[in-house]
Amino acid sequence: MGRLITVDDLKKHYPVSRSLKEMVNGERPAVRALDGVSFELEERESIGLLGESGCGKTTTGRLILKLEEPTSGSVTVDGQPIARLKGKALKEFRKQAQLVFQNPFDALNPRLTMEQSLSEPLINAGAPKAEFSDRIAAVMKQARLPRIKEVLPKYPHQLSGGQLQRIVLARALILGPRFIVADEPVSMLDVSVRADILNLMRDIQRESSLSAIYISHDLALVRYVAKRTLVMYLGRIVEDGPTEEIVLRPQHPYTKALIAAVPVPRVDQDRGPLPIKGNVPDARRPPSGCRFHDRCPIAIARCSVEDPALLPSAPGHRVACHLVAKA
Amino acid sequence: MSRSARVAGGSIRFEGKEIAGAPPSVMQEILWRRMAFVPQSAMNALDPVYRGGKPIEEVLVHRGNYRREDVPKRIAELLEMVGRNPKRQNDYPHQFSGGMRQRVGIALALALNPALMIADEPVTALDVIVQRQVLDTLKDLQRRLNLSVIIVTHDISVVAYVCDRVVVMYAGEVVESGKVKDVLEQPVHPYTMGLTNAFPDLGRAAGTLVPIAGSPPDLRDPPPGCRIAPRCPFAEPRCAQTSPPLVTDEKGHAAACLRANEAPMLREQARDPARWAA
User: Fold this and answer.
1) What angle do the packed helices A161-173 and A114-124 form, to 10 degrees?
2) What is the pLDDT of residue B278?
3) Mean pLDDT lowest for which of A306-310, B60-64, B152-156?
4) Could you say which of A259, A267, A276 has the minimum Cβ distance to residue B160?
């Protein structure tokens, strides 16, 4: 296994309009959606980006796909910094990096048949027309879409959510990408369909050499598809480790709160009060020191002053907290 | 209900009054005052050009006959009740987070002290921490206000966390109902067994999620007999012919399955993922 993606000190700040006072003081307020994120992704690896809305998980995904340019920092894919990609090289990169959309009901053009929707990426990539039907049939098989002949002439409104999500997935896979970024791929689906799609994504990864980044706020779902999980909070990674390790032995107090909040489908649940208060702070003015200190149940004086670094707590496990023992 | 739809039969009695197919004049007396609704994705249900407190004001004045001068106090009370800062009642919806907007939706429903609140997928679009906060608020209000609540959801964990009783529906019919503990721990209907199999549980080892193969039937032409039979791993030939009646046991646990008496054995078999393979 080689290194596929390296994300180095990635930052993305979105400027926001200034108040008169800020103009006078010469301040440039910005939403710091992403504020110094570094991690690596190996070939064939699947990771989950976990966190609440506004933590920067979707922004990370978009920057890795080069749908947006970072304010600073870099993303390197296959040893190539993607910031400099242009022309032919960029087109090649687009084939290798694909996005799976969140809402299958919105992701497909309502005026295109399934066949047209699946042909679009092939046309864009300049594939020979003679190959279209074979490649579509192959990818539909990969996405476990039965009755190909029946489905292809249909429009999105004629298909179920599960079928649509398979088409969305097939569309992302049809050019044979090296990696996919899936943003909440099952959050819009019903329970039974959700299980089906999660199993499918797990199978596809096993069968192919695909790497995947799953973005979600629900660890119970990430657990089924990602071997490793990065927990994000306010534009930073607070914990990074094997998913099962994080589920069973979370280290960071924020991760502990997230896990305590995940609902379980049982009545005998012994659930204490949520070990966290308030809301995610304003990303324009993140708290000093550790960004979580104002909501943290165990914060000490040091936490409001000193920003904790993401350091190893065990092999393959990193945590950004002053109060977690370092390995 | 959509204008093109009609109540084809049956009856809904609310506080002793028949309301199935009741004319708007009758419903207007009941809606908001006795029975209130929190729509799905209440996050987007608020008009973006009105300030947060405005829709509540409209309900209070037009439906509750509140005098204008009493309105601000009641709005503050309601927002406080759902855990929102009453000082922010003049902010616009976009200035609030999703969880906060959901809380406004609940405050709106509670404006006139209804006896029943119906909430459609109240936490589906929210983050897990916010979900938990909103559900805690709901539970607390239900107790404090002596409120009856109907939660419409596909999320079994929401049911497990807040509800006393559950009604499981499939293709327009009730397939099982009873106390949440009975239904989730000892499901009688195979569909309920399948649903619990398909649901991830963070508190347990990560097994395989087992989906129910197939998809719900076309309701223009539902299958004869039991509607789930074509997807049921335990279906017998008779299931495709006879519609199973909803049978209630002495504990108030009801199920509509011809093989209900074999439930303990079916539960055992339902644990095997191979059973559910398409």
Assistant:
1) 20
2) 66
3) B60-64
4) A267
Residue pair B106/B136 in contact (Cβ under 8 Å)? The answer is no
Residue A324 lies in a domain: no
The domain in which residue A204 lies consists of: 3-319
Q: What is the pLDDT of residue A327?
A: 65
Q: What is the CATH number of the domain that holds A301?
A: 3.40.50.300
pLDDT digits (tens, 9 = 90+) for A265-311: 888 766 777 888 777 788 788 899 999 999 999 999 999 999 999 99
Nearest to A9 by CA among A34, A30, A36, A29: A36
H or E element that contains B178:
strand B173-179
pTM for the whole thing?
A: 0.87
Name the residue ranges covered by the structural domains of chain B: 23-163, 169-200+211-276
Instruction: Determine the residue among B97, B137, B175, B199 to mutate to test chain A binding: the one whose Cβ has the most chain A Cβ atoms within 10 Å.
Output: B199
Place of tokens 């700040």: A13
Domain count, chain A: 1
Write the CATH number of the domain with boundaries B23-163.
Answer: 3.40.50.300
Contact B184 A221 (CB under 8 A): no
The ipTM (two decimal places) reads: 0.81
Query: Would the CB atoms of B198 and A258 count as touching at under 8 Å?
Result: no
